[in-house]
């Protein structure tokens, strides 16, 4: 099982009055990693996979420790924990070597923008997602470790 690795820069404006990354900013980091995973790394040359749109149905996030501003980027690791007929779950860890700041998951629903409704995951998309599938290692499992 592969993990998608995204190097996420920290911005000065990400800090809150307490001097650490604001809790809502972590959702932006997850979004950046998810977009990089689903759209830039979509399978096939010129493939339309994942390009038709998607919506977030659910976020779950556990804040493990504060992250303070520095010039080095933070790593966001992403993997898939569930593939359904019309949704998938992506798990994440925002981390540095040896320490985790956030563990999270997102339920994503592919969406047909023209029709204005959710759509099923295609065979090509499922094939791509299976490369990152780890059903036994979701966010709750990682928290127990």
From TrEMBL:
<dbReference type="InterPro" id="IPR029069">
    <property type="entry name" value="HotDog_dom_sf"/>
</dbReference>
<dbReference type="InterPro" id="IPR050563">
    <property type="entry name" value="4-hydroxybenzoyl-CoA_TE"/>
</dbReference>
<dbReference type="GO" id="GO:0047617">
    <property type="term" value="F:fatty acyl-CoA hydrolase activity"/>
</dbReference>
<protein>
    <submittedName>
        <fullName>Thioesterase</fullName>
    </submittedName>
</protein>
<dbReference type="Pfam" id="PF13279">
    <property type="entry name" value="4HBT_2"/>
</dbReference>
């Amino acid at each position: 099982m592969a993990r998608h690795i995204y190097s996420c820069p920290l911005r000065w404006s990400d800090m809150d009055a307490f001097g650490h990354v604001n809790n809502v900013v972590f959702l932006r980091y997850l979004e950046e990693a998810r977009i990089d995973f689903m759209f830039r790394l979509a399978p096939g040359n010129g493939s339309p996979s994942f390009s038709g749109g998607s919506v977030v149905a659910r976020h779950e996030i556990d804040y493990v420790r504060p992250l303070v501003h520095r010039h080095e980027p933070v790593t966001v690791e992403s993997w898939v924990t569930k593939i359904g007929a019309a949704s998938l779950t992506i798990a994440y860890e925002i981390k540095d070597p040896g320490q985790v700041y956030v563990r999270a998951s997102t339920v994503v629903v592919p969406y047909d923008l023209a029709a204005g409704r959710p759509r099923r995951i295609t065979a090509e998309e499922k094939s791509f997602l299976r490369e990152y599938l780890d059903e036994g290692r979701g966010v709750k499992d990682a928290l127990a470790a």
